[in-house]
Amino acid sequence: MSQTGAGPGGMQPSIYNRPVSTDGAAPIIHAQNVTKVYSAGRLEVPAVRGLSLAVEKGEFVAIVGPSGSGKSTLFYLLGGLTRATSGRVMIDGVDFATLEDAERTRLRRHRIGFVFQKFNLLPTLSAMGNIEIAYAISGRKDPMDRQYLEHLSELLSIQGRLDHRPSELSGGEQQRVAIARALITRPAIVLADEPTGNLDTRNSDAVLEMLVRSNRELGQTTLMITHNPEAAAIAGRILHMRDGQIVREEKGLRSAPLAPPASPGSSAAQTTSGGV
Ligand SMILES: Nc1ncnc2c1ncn2[C@@H]1O[C@H](COP(=O)(O)OP(=O)(O)O)[C@@H](O)[C@H]1O
Ligand SMILES: [Mg+2]
Fold first, then answer.
1. Is the CB of 39 inside a 6 Å radius of any atom of ligand 1?
2. In this structure, are residues 115 and 193 in contact, taking their beta carbons and an 8 Å threshold?
């Protein structure tokens, strides 16, 4: 099951285009004994302390914990936005720590869609413009798939809102546009940090439902960080974080494997939650 020792030799050239792992292969996200220590002047702040985590392809995992427990730091580590102080972060079999910054950026752009608490939409562009620019930045050679965008807009219920600027949209709509922006490049992994943190209950529910739907219908692996246990409950698996470590794991409402259907003999989706 776990090919963690996949080893250095010879995997470098094709890493970005490796086929996404299928049943029984290594976890798509695999953190091994990861530590992150911030230096704040003479002070050392250990934000993540020897954390291990494995997420299978197609899973929806929530990470929940109080403020300051290291959730966002873990998000940056898993997303390749910062380097671990020690330990390994493997994304689809590739060790982030071994990559130069430019390569890490490329891997990130090809594999991961980010959703943030503050929607981070560009205010002078329409919703459509925001999605288009994200696609352009991703460096894809093929033109943006308009049909896929239509499909996403329907999935996220933002058809008819795409000509509007962020200031003309509700918070919930802005976040759904931000999700469309994250999904337009068809990332294998969606990382969301407090995606409902700035939303009222109704909009939160809608955004959570969209995340679940995109996880199911597009076959993505979703990792959502939240301090809100109610939001976390929609996940298949909930990991509780405290003081930079995962201290507890429980099943969420969707504990059935979320991987795409029609692959008989692959009931092992939840069994490799290893190292927790
Ligand atoms: N850039 C930074 N420099 C120094 N300390 C930081 C930095 N970012 C976060 N921290 C500290 O690391 C710990 C974890 O922070 P964070 O990952 O943001 O937690 P959470 O997202 O769960 O609130 C906190 O003690 C925080 O103050
Ligand atoms: Mg945070």
1. no
2. yes
Helices (H), the chain: 71-78, 101-111, 127-137, 146-155, 171-183, 201-217, 229-232
Distance CA 60, CA 73 (A): 19
Ligand 1: which residue has its CA nearest to atom 27? 68
CA 112 to chain centre: 6
- State if residue 38 touches ligand 1 by the CB under 6 angstroms criterion: yes
Interacting residues of 104 by C-beta distance below 8 A, sequence separation 6+: 80, 96
| Contact 193 CB / ligand 1 (< 6 Å) | no
What's the CA angle centered on 145, arms 174 and 155, to 5 degrees? 45
Distance 89 CA to ligand 2 centre (A): 19
* pLDDT confidence bin for 24, thresholds 50/70/90: low
**3-state DSSP call for residue 83?**
coil
Tokens 């290594």 belong to residue:
26
The pLDDT mean for the chain works out to: 83
Strands (E), the chain: 29-40, 43-55, 60-64, 86-91, 94-95, 112-115, 189-193, 221-226, 237-242, 245-251
Q: What predicted TM-score, i.e. pTM, was given to this entire model? A: 0.81
Pocket of ligand 1 contains residue 44 by CB under 6 Å: no
φ/ψ bin of 109: left (φ > 0), alpha (ψ from -120 to 50), beta (otherwise)? alpha
CA distance 256 to 270: 8
CATH level 2 (architecture), domain 56-83+98-251: 3-Layer(aba) Sandwich (3.40)
How does pLDDT run across 188-226, given as a tens digit for each residue? Answer: 999 999 999 988 888 888 889 889 988 998 889 999 999
Residue 226 tokens read as 């939240």
